[in-house]
Fold this sequence. Notes:
The chain is an alpha/beta fold.
Amino acid sequence: xxxxxxxxxxxxxxxxxxPAVMRRMLxxxxxxxxxxxxxEKELTDCVRLNDVQREEFLSAKKRGLPVEMxxxxxxxxxxxxxxxxxxxxxRLRELPDAPYMLFCLGKLPxxxxxxxxxxxxxxxxxxxxxxxxxxxxxxxxxGVPVISGxxxxxxxxxxxxxxxxGGESYGILGCGVDVIYPSSNRELYRKLTEQGGVISxxxxxxxxxxxxxxxxxxxxxAFCDLLIVVEAREKSGSHITVQYALExxxxxxxxxxxxxxxxxxxxxxxxxxxxxxxxxxxxxLLALKDMHQKKLLTFPLKEIGESIGxxxxxxWPGKLQGKLQKLLxxxxxxxxxxxxxxxxxxxxxxxxxxxxxxxEIEGKVLCRGGRYEIG
Length: 375
């Protein structure tokens, strides 16, 4: 058995619940094995850990190394790649909250090959379906890989059209790569593993918990060069991916929709703010070809906030804003790190992202490279 993999899987378990702490621990101690070998006194004396984190480390030690997981990975044909590996994707390495481990069935996208993410609502119209199929098909014919989240609706429609026409597509999951979600995508899942890959930062067997999906969106945008929003409501979750894409310096395009159609309101709003118009695949291919000459797309932050329904900070509890500002006074952090540090099981990550954006709009916090700090 590969002992190094065991130690990495142990570290990956802790990384999900306290990524910032684990990054600092890995920097200080050099490897996952060295962290595992810390005894109780060393953990107790470690100034980097608070009482809750120290207890989490001790609990993990008591549970022992995940000895059954390497065999599970081997049986399914899954591979795991760690941040310290030289072939870890360069696209992700620059993220302030880069995953410690990536799990993959199939393969990872090629580093030097341009790719396009196609995203949108789960409950799409016939217009959205036909448009997603069009872009998936035409990108496949042009040899451009399609990145998406394998979610019901626009995501899976575009990915299915891509692989059905011989293209490469990669599904970035909000669960373990051995968990098919939604179950109706079983055939698409199989094709993705054969004509691309399914990828996740979550351990094998991880359930599709709601908080994991907004977080995985940063990987969808990181793996692509250009993002297309096909159909999105005013307060669509697609805007989270758009926000990540903008922070990462990616070009954002939107498909124009009919006036008065609620499923197109989000896209039309993005277009009014300066997003590229995805009216044909040739426009997208030209953008990819000339990307080094194009000026990176930027939106006024206030307008982004309004596009997902943020108009009045009084709609959110002042208590949460106060807690966030206190945490940020102590140390900057990504949205994921702040979510873990808040430790409120009843709060959804979407609510945290909304409040952070509101604070950003008000100038009370700044976001630099995905990390939030006091403004």
